[in-house]
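Morning!

This is the sequence you dropped in the shared folder:
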Amino acid sequence: MNVLFRFDGAPWLAERVAALQSEGLSVTLCSEQEDSAYLAALTQADVLWHVLRPITDDAIGRAPKLKLIQKIGVGVNTIDLDAAKKRGIAVCNMPGTNSRAVAELTLLLMLACLRRTVGFDAATRAGEGWSWPLEWQGGLGEIGGRTVGLVGFGAVPRLLAPILTAMGAEVIYTGRRSYADVHLPFVTKEELLARADILSLHVPLGEDTLGWLDAGAIAAMKPGAIVVNVARGAQVDEAALVAALSSGHVAAAGLDVFAAEPPGADNPLFALPSVVVSPHIAWLTRETIERSLAVAAENCCRLATGEPLLHRMA
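The structure's back. Tokens below.
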């Protein structure tokens, strides 16, 4: 079975996927930066392992043998699901494989915002670590004693919430519904915005979450709160967030995702010292990749034998 894995893989990953030959899988690693090589490889692909670069109707049309699009991760908003359905191509994701990595980076972003880690790092490297701006002093804080508002309560918040509680935070959540097995306060969006010292987004991108944190929602937030987004960039109005950060209404933001990816170097968020950023890598650990490869290989085997696919979305 020919598998096209569109991802910029390091040498260790190339060796790892080559070993899948023993399971009957011929996996071709193709850089996300090489469009021509990708389009050429699609013509022979039975399965496409997809990470972030969008899969368009045009790309699907160039893959006559394609039977499965396997998302390496959870969100399938970067896949043209209608085009896949028209061709009878299955689409699967893999919930849970990256949850621990995302939960840990979420915590890291919260702490980096509270402790101005990026600013102190830069100052220390520049020989100014012992003469940092005194105005930073009053803005340094701890998670303990703060209220953390989680938007959504899927796999990531279920791992993150007990850690935050153990650190002394009060954790509240909102979303489409409450969960009987979650013994934390479920609140309305309005109450979460008013109470949260740290607001963290953990919902898939859809019609009901597009622009979830818009200008009105940001204005309704508790003054001096922190925004963390490891979900999808389009859920936050970036212009409104820049304005709120500039005015001090929002104290800081930790962002792993952006409205346009990759964002331009002139993105105004990058000019703000209260913003901590990373390039959509909350999911990216070696452990996540190993778990993901196991699920992806299993689904290829199921495709070959006609068994039901794991986590089929379409």
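Headline: The chain has a mean pLDDT of 96.

More detail when I'm at my desk.
O.
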